[in-house]
From TrEMBL:
Subunit structure of this chain's protein: NDH-1 is composed of 14 different subunits. Subunits NuoA, H, J, K, L, M, N constitute the membrane sector of the complex.
Kinase listed as a keyword: no
Protein name: NADH-quinone oxidoreductase subunit I
Substrates-to-products reaction catalysed: a quinone + NADH + 5 H(+)(in) = a quinol + NAD(+) + 4 H(+)(out)
Stretch list, region Disordered: 185-213
Amino acid sequence: MSTPDSGQPAPRVKPVRYARKEYWNEPTMTLWERAYLPEVLRGLAITTGVFLRNMGKWITGRRGAVTTYYPEERRADFAPRNRGKHVLTQRPDGSVQCIACNMCATVCPAKVIEIEPGFDMNDPAHPKYPVRFEIDYSRCVFCGMCVEACPEDAIRMEPDVPNLVSDDRYNMWITMDEMMTWRPQSDVAKPYPPKPVALTRGSRPEGGAPSKH
């Protein structure tokens, strides 16, 4: 390669050599540490210690750390805020508090809630209600997001764990009747107005003149 003016070959440019970055605080491992034997032995020591402690509790009759043999044995020391079985709250008249807004089914990460809405035009206070409200416990993760998303406080979770022992997934669906009758709860903190009476021909509203039609 030559320059256009002098015809002499251009000087060859030497490539720039970059020095590798040196870490001044890089730890040096010995041959014993590179074999990872200390960490393996340390993990085995922790596992053996837990095993011996649990075995001691088993021998002395303290079975707090031993696995419960479910479903023959069931725990009763669940935390007060444990998220367990779902219940549907009721209004003072016994009807379901749910308005079938589908917010719980929308926010559910496992998509296990199925709601079939119905309409009652004779009840202007809450014309929408669930005809079918079911939860698939075979896929439910018991996260409690349905309870947080409900605007009517219509669904709650009890600390008790539901009975999920079944060899058929179709038997693990919980229905609306079971959620309302298992442990009935009424939302007395938020009463609803009474159902208005439908006007008929010639009837007079309270404090008004008779209708003219």
